[in-house]
Design a protein that fits this description.
The protein has 203 residues and is α+β, with helices and mostly antiparallel strands.
């Protein structure tokens, strides 16, 4: 895969999204977080992934959120758009001959969880706290399982989805939240309830 093309995409996104970020910051915006429940089952795909990529699964200690500056938002947008456009969507059955396999799509092919895992890896490599980058399982409008990446920030939680280049606040997605990684340990998964009523960022 060619990561050099990320710069060009980043410049274009900066032009588009910087004014939007500035407007939201000055006017105040809703800050929404998912409701966290009890510990729940760990997806088998994650367990198997960690057997192959132990370094990706190390516990990180205390929770940490992303400080959502204009620069941080720009980087998140860059990574989301680049991965979405660079990876070919292929089912695990067609790709690997199995029903479910989580992997880094280093051959340029993958399904939803593979997109999320690559975005997580790229953001960690850019200095984002591992504890704030949470693989999340949801149900779509057809009640099908789907994986996305949640970025937890001091200005709410944002969703990176391979089906949408727009990085959306968690209260603006059309999915039912099911479970995701704990901030304290990626190998512990917690159930999710509805998004809490938004509060508003200070001006």
């Amino acid at each position: 895969m060619r990561f050099s093309s990320l710069k060009a995409i980043g410049f274009a996104l900066a032009v588009v999204f910087a004014p939007l970020f500035a407007e939201a910051a000055s006017a105040g915006q809703d800050v929404a977080y998912a409701s966290i429940g009890d510990e729940t089952s760990i997806p088998f795909g994650w367990v198997e992934f960690c057997q192959r990529y132990k370094g990706e699964c190390a516990a990180s200690g205390a929770a940490a959120d992303v400080n959502l500056t204009e620069s941080a938002l720009r980087e998140i947008q860059q990574v989301n758009a680049w991965v979405n456009r660079s990876i070919e969507a292929v089912s695990d059955m067609d790709h690997w001959g199995v029903v479910d396999r989580w992997d880094l799509p280093m051959d340029g092919k993958g399904d939803c969880e593979d997109y999320a895992l690559l975005k997580r890896k790229m953001l960690i490599e850019r200095g984002f706290p591992r504890q704030a980058l949470l693989i999340t399982v949801v149900r779509d409008q057809q009640n099908e399982g789907h994986a996305i990446l949640t970025v937890k920030t001091n200005a709410g939680e944002f969703i990176l989805d391979n089906l949408n280049d727009e990085v959306k606040p968690i209260n603006r997605i059309a999915y039912r939240l099911v479970k995701r990684q704990s901030q304290e340990d990626p190998n512990v998964w917690v159930s999710l309830g509805p998004v809490a009523a938004p509060v508003y960022a200070s001006r």
